[in-house]
Amino acid sequence: MFSQFFGNFLLSKGVVTTEQLLHAIKEQHSRHLKVGTLAIHSGYMTASEVDTIVIRQTHEDKRFGEIAIEEGYLTEEQLMALLQAQTPDYLLIGQILVDEGVLNNTQLEELIAAYQRENQLSELEGEQKDNLDYLVRNLMLLSTSELPEYLIKYLTLLFNNLVRFVGEDFTPLNPTLYSEYVTDHCSAQTIDGDFQIVSYIDVTEETAIAFASRYVGEDFTEFDEYVQASSEDFLNLHNGLFNVNVSNEDSVELHLNAPVSMANTMISSTEKLVHLPILYPFGILNFLFKV
What we know:
By secondary structure, this protein is of the alpha+beta class. The protein folds into two domains: 132 residues, no CATH class; 142 residues, 3-Layer(aba) Sandwich (Chemotaxis protein chec). It contains 13 helices and eight strands. Strands 1, 2, 3, 4, 5, 6, 7 and 8 form an eight-stranded antiparallel beta sheet that branches. The longest helix is centred in the last third of the chain and has 26 residues. The protein is elongated, with a radius of gyration of 22 Å. It starts with a helix and ends with a strand.
């Protein structure tokens, strides 16, 4: 999950373009982490030491680890630990950007340290739920510092459900606040009871077709009622799971209304209307929440 938020971090820092990030996201499944990237992340080696070995490899037919041991940068025990360690998924995004010449190893080393520091990942490494909760809070601070606790839970579940039912190759973009928003092809649903959440998924026609194809597992080629129903079904699935979780964990009573279509509609609110774009290679899913 952390690679999605690392992508947002890189965009926010202005070190990559949207196109460069999307390319790296697409390449994730065809690449593997290199020992040099792992060594930088672990703190065993500096970026300059890794660069020294990469230069040597252009003249010698030897593995990275073999040269690192020869140079005294790594011990055999450290090399084995790197090869066996479970590593954060965002490292591969950074490595691909280095391979593509978008970043260098020194920049990646600095960015990884800043990402971990700003999101307290170095202190919470391995505690996946706590890490994700903190990342969500940090993301939403860009728009407001007053989101209620239940909405943080709602958004955390949303990111997990996007991974489970649509695909992990996304990046959340920075959220913004609106008082008015004009929809394109939009599905909406209201949760009410002990508190209320009104949520929306708004997409272009092209993005709706691609989303439905992924979500349903069929190859849709044109926008129709089945494509529209797919976004309504995802919203209903997500909200239903949220209601069950909150009921079980917090003993909160909620009611889920039926999803509705709101194409070409002006949404207005005197309260907070949070707009959270989710960038996929096939387009942007615009999630909005009225709380």
